[in-house]
């Protein structure tokens, strides 16, 4: 399977969307559920891991797509 620019763009866009969804899920779990109360420190750790995974997916893909956008804008 050859990695073309279009395939990389799709993968990065998918990573960015998945990161945003994980961030929203983590914030909703922290705000609207009692996981942090019922599970104690394990619940807080779970929420932090979900938000952290979302950030790990979101930040690099966002930087890559922004740089790609600026390169297309220059040309």
In words, what does this structure look like?
With about 80 residues, the chain is an all-alpha fold. It has a domain at about 40-70. About 90% of the residues lie in helices and about 0% in strands. The longest helix has about 35 residues, at about 40-75. The chain is elongated, with a radius of gyration of 16 Å. The model has no long low-confidence stretch (mean pLDDT about 90).
Give a short synopsis of this structure.
The two termini are 28 Å apart.
Give the radius of gyration: 16 Å
Order of helices and strands: HHH
What does the average pLDDT come to?
89
How far is the first residue's CA from the last residue's CA?
Answer: 28 Å
Shape: elongated
Beta strand %: under 5%
Q: Low-confidence parts lasting 5 or more residues at pLDDT below 50?
A: none
Count of helix runs: 3
Structural class: mainly alpha
Give a quick account of the main beta sheet: strands, pairing sense, barrel closure: none
Number of DSSP-assigned strands: 0
Q: Helical amount among residues, as a percent range? A: over 70%
């Amino acid at each position: 399977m050859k990695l073309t620019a279009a395939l990389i763009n799709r993968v990065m866009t998918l990573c960015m969307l998945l990161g945003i969804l994980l961030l929203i899920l983590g914030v909703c779990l922290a705000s609207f559920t009692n996981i942090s109360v019922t599970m104690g420190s394990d619940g807080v750790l779970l929420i932090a891991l979900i938000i952290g995974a979302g950030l790990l997916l979101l930040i690099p893909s966002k930087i890559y797509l922004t740089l790609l956008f600026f390169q297309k804008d220059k040309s």
